[in-house]
Each structure stands twice: as C-alpha cells, then as structure tokens.
Amino acid sequence: MSEAIAFDTHKFIKHMTASGFTEQQAEALAEEQVALLNSNLATKADIEGVKADIEALRLATKADIEALRLATKADIEGVKADIETLRQATKSDIETLRQATKSDIETLRLATEAKIEAVKSELLKWMFGALIAQGGLIVALVKLL
Fold it and tell me: Residue 52: which domain range?
C-alpha cells in the first residue's frame, strides 16, 4: 500500500525518544501513526476511483436524459397526431353542420316563399272581391241617384 502522505518516521522516533519514550515505544507509535494515516486519508488511486465512478454516473445520467428526450419526443409526436385527428374530425363536423344549416335555410326560404305566395293570392282574391263590391256599390248608387 502506498503512503497517502510523506511521514518522516525517523524524525518522529527521534522526537519521541527525546521526549522520554523508549526507542521501542517510539517505533511502535510511529508504525501506528503511519497505519492510521494510510487507512484514513484518500490516495491518488482512491481519487481516480471516485473520478471513474463520477464519470460512470455522468454517462448513465446522460443516457437517461437522452432516453427521456426521445420518449418525450415520441409523446409529443403522439399528441400532435391526436391533435391532427381532432382537427380533422372537428373540420368534418363543422362541414356537416354547415351543410345541414344551409339545407335548413333553403327549406325555410322555400316555405316562406310558399306562404308569401299564398298570402299574395289570398290578398288578390280579397282585393278583387272588394273591387267588385265597390264597383257594384257605385253602380247601385248611380242608379239610385
């Protein structure tokens, strides 16, 4: 296992023996310090492993985003197709209603014309009848006078 940081064990042992430790105690303490530092500090290999993990996650996320983009694009295309179908159906319904309305208007026009014609002929009968009655009344008045 490579060391995470440079640790001068010789200097450490000299300092500990100067402080009252025996050489054997100082060596044991130095070995423990090195083991502690190496087990708790990240090494370059650890950092490279984390970088590789991050890169793998980045690529997986990128793939997920692309899959979502394609799924969304497919959904949008489906919605566009649905909208076009509805537009065509609405257009057809409007054309059907337009034709039905046109037919109803034509029926009403013909019925109105027939009623106008009937009223006209009835009015002419009454007018000729009244004209004949007035003529007769005028002739009777002229004979009386």
Answer: 42-144
Question: For residue 105, what pLDDT is reported?
Answer: 96
What pLDDT does 2 receive?
53
Indicate if the alpha-carbon torsion angle 26, 27, 33, 37 is positive or negative: positive
pLDDT on residue 1: 45
Do residues 101 and 134 share a domain? Answer: yes
The total number of structural domains that make up the chain: 2
Q: Are 12 and 23 in contact (CB under 8 A)?
A: no
Which pLDDT value is given to residue 65? 95
Q: Rounded mean pLDDT of 47-75?
A: 92
